[in-house]
Amino acid sequence: MKQLLAALLTALCFASPCGATVVQLVKAQSANGSATTITITLSGVIAGDFVWVGVYLGSNQVSPTVSDSNGNTVLGAGSWGGNSAGISNGEFYVQSASAGTNTFTIVAASATYIRAFAAEYAGSYTYDTAASPNPGNSASPTTNSVTPGASGELAIALISTSFAGLTFSAWTNSFVQEDTYNTSGTSGVWADLSSAGSGAITASATMSAAKAYVASLALFRASGGSTCTHAGITSAGAIAVPNGTSGSYRLKNGSFGTPDCSTVSYKQTIGNFGVN
Q1: Cα dihedral angle (219, 160, 212, 32), rounded to 10 degrees?
Q2: Are 49 and 23 in contact (CB under 8 A)?
Q3: Using CA atoms, how far apart are residues 67 and 56, in angstroms rounded to an integer?
Q4: Rounded distance, CA 66 to CA 58, Å?
């Protein structure tokens, strides 16, 4: 049923552009402050869908490593950042996920609290840009501002604190709160804006108390566009010119998927990876 719904939504969005749709979401956490590794699993993922992973660490340290059980390339969306209160967070993604079970392993450089969200969005998205993580201390956690490369992009905000019992509400700029965590001395939230405008945007919420936080914001645009210029090699071994909206071609990250003809490198018959 989930696959059928996602397929219908994707078809409708090709016919008439619409915002990003969350197919499923999960969250995971370390049991205490002594963990260096946790896993988080999405089951029944539809081949080619976009997967986002948001990670919080209860200490200000370097970015953790994030890997996928299917060998998909997991990339960072913007920079990892922390604050003087000793917390840090950042966003990661898989542009075009493998079908079935996708388990993500998050490994921190040193033992700490680890919290993570994972979400599957219908369709394939590619990273555009991100605001630098914003550390602050107030009841109105706010990301830094960032300008999308085009209108209609998916914007995802992640806010993390090291205080339990906090709630979040009253998001600005039409952001929709998707999920929260609130256990073991930490609180956090993620929200998204399925179709951002063309101007600079920020994400801000009302927090139930003024506390130290880190707020991140990343932007992604839907893959697919005009017909590519050069022929590529399909997953079936055929030679064809990608049309930007369908077909499975060898991508630069080693997987097969539909290349966006303006941004996603694919294996071309001229012997290299490129776009248009």
Answers
A1: -160
A2: yes
A3: 16
A4: 17
Token pair belonging to 20: 């990003």
- pLDDT grade, residue 224 (50/70/90)? low
Q: Look up tokens 């108390």; give the residue.
A: 209
> Confidence class of residue 262 from pLDDT cuts 50, 70 and 90?
low
pLDDT at 275: 72
Averaged pLDDT score across all residues of the chain: 86
- Name the CA radius of gyration of the chain, rounded: 19
- What does DSSP assign to residue 204? B
Position 135 scores a pLDDT of 95
What is the Cα–Cα distance from 110 to 56, expressed in whole angstroms?
Answer: 13
Q: How far apart are CA 54 and CA 206, in angstroms?
A: 20
Give the mean model confidence (pLDDT) for residues 56-72.
Answer: 93
Return the SS3 of 165. Answer: coil
CA end-to-end distance (rounded Å), the chain? 36
* Residue boundaries of the structural domains of the chain: 2-222, 224-276
Distance between CA atoms of residues 225 and 206, nearest Å: 37
The verdict on pTM exceeding 0.70 is yes
Q: Where are the alpha helices (DSSP H) in 187-237?
A: none
Q: What is the mean pLDDT of residues 53-73?
A: 94
CA distance 155 to 158: 10
